[in-house]
Amino acid sequence: MARKVFNSPAYVKPCVVDVAHKLLGADNWVFLDGKAHVEFRKGLNGLFTRRALEIYLPGQEEVYNRYFKEFLEITKQAGGKPVPFMTHFREVITAVSCRTFVGHYISDDAVKKIADDYYLITAALELVNFPIIIPYTKTWYGKKAADMVLAEFARCAAKSKARMAAGGEPNCIMDAWILEMIKSKKWREAQEKGESVEGLEKPTHMLRDFTDYEISQTVFTFLFASQDATSSAATWLFQIMAQRPDVLDRVREENLKVRNGNINAPVDMDQLESMTYTRAVVRELLRYRPPVLMVPYVVKKPFPITEAYTAPKGSMVIPTTYMALRDPEVYENPDEFNPERYYTGDAEVKGAKNYLVFGTGPHYCLGQQYAQLNLVLMVGKASLLLNWKHHPTPKSEEIKVFATIFPMDDCPLTFEERKW
Ligand code: HEM
């Protein structure tokens, strides 16, 4: 039933809270529907290909190296006492996202400011909100934070345009997109003038020139879509790995092997993909604790969901990802965290239609490969550089919803350097 809703673009489109239009800009591509949406998305697909994802890896390694040192410092500052790490995971994920999306066009201070303020944006998106923005309310703070991010990203777009035009190497999503625009322009102009296109690199998708603001708006949607979900996954990943040393040991072993015993060696895409056990851990983590529990859709025309029931136009239909991911017919003991189902088991095949973690249909998650490989990189590196301990409380397994899901006690952890 959930799949049917996701896969019925003729009847439904994503339904966002009113304030989202105000935060992201009403003319943002994520609010497009039908053909216009498909067309715009095609132009973004090239930013998430395997080849593109490889370019972003060094920036991500750099951020993790820096933040893992900070994790050690946090425990030290607390005198070895447990500290709730949820907000720290949110911060490192913002920093990784910023480096991936806008490279070094943004200062460390600006990254820190975005990370600090981002929760205001999430808070502003609470489902129940006033339709107007009243000063000093959550939506007002959220709008201020969103405007700050948009202005920062627009400045990055201007810098990226200048560097790419001068023949610079792309190393972030913004560069990759702008490079495709430059290639498209050259190709178009050559064709218009009737000149030979020989020697020109054909763009994968013909793009028009986007303004700095449009680029900023689009890259902001990536931050918006990834921030809460990836932070949720990262928090649970560290909690569960600490609870399951047997699993963490195997992650460690695999990561050490791929790096030929050098714990500080960076990895490339082939190496990341070759880590089938660590990938199974991430896959199972996302099944066990799916960050996005449901995706609200709105009915565009009467929608016969079943033979007995037709949802009227204007109603909300909210497919949940959770039930399909806990289906006992597909996943034996569904309430158990067991990476083996994706390593030696048949969950991938048997549950191919159940895996709604990233949605399905025309709006399925654009960043799903990136999100999973990024989590593989994060936990793999952490396993080699850090030891960490979870300090359970009665609320550790209880779930709170802050856009996505988090442990109710915000995940109290202590970190120490791993000595080999
Ligand atoms: C674990 C992390 C993530 C999870 C669980 C997740 C999940 C989802 C889900 C459930 C949807 C709605 C799909 C639908 O309606 O069918 C979605 C949409 C989307 N996601 Fe993700 N996501 C994650 C990370 C990311 C990242 C890292 C990016 C970008 C870099 C991203 C970009 C997007 C975009 C742009 C959309 C909207 C696509 C559209 O409307 O065409 N997501 N995601």
UniProtKB/TrEMBL annotation:
Keyword Heme: yes
Catalysed reactions, semicolon-separated: 5-dehydroepisterol + NADPH + O2 + H(+) = ergosta-5,7,22,24(28)-tetraen-3beta-ol + NADP(+) + 2 H2O
Cofactor dependency: heme
GO biological process entries: sterol metabolic process
Cited PROSITE patterns: CYTOCHROME_P450
Coiled-coil stretches: none
UniProt keyword annotation of Transmembrane present: no
E.C. code: 1.14.19.41
Superkingdom to which the source organism belongs: Eukaryota
UniProt: heme binding residues: C365
SUPFAM superfamilies (UniProt xref): Cytochrome P450
UniProt keyword list: Heme, Iron, Metal-binding, Monooxygenase, Oxidoreductase
Gene3D superfamilies: Cytochrome P450
One term of GO molecular function: iron ion binding
Alphabetical list of InterPro entries matching this protein: Cyt_P450, Cyt_P450_CS, Cyt_P450_E_grp-IV, Cyt_P450_sf
Pfam families the UniProt entry points to: p450
Similarity field: Belongs to the cytochrome P450 family.
Name assigned to this protein: sterol 22-desaturase
Species, as recorded: Parathielavia appendiculata
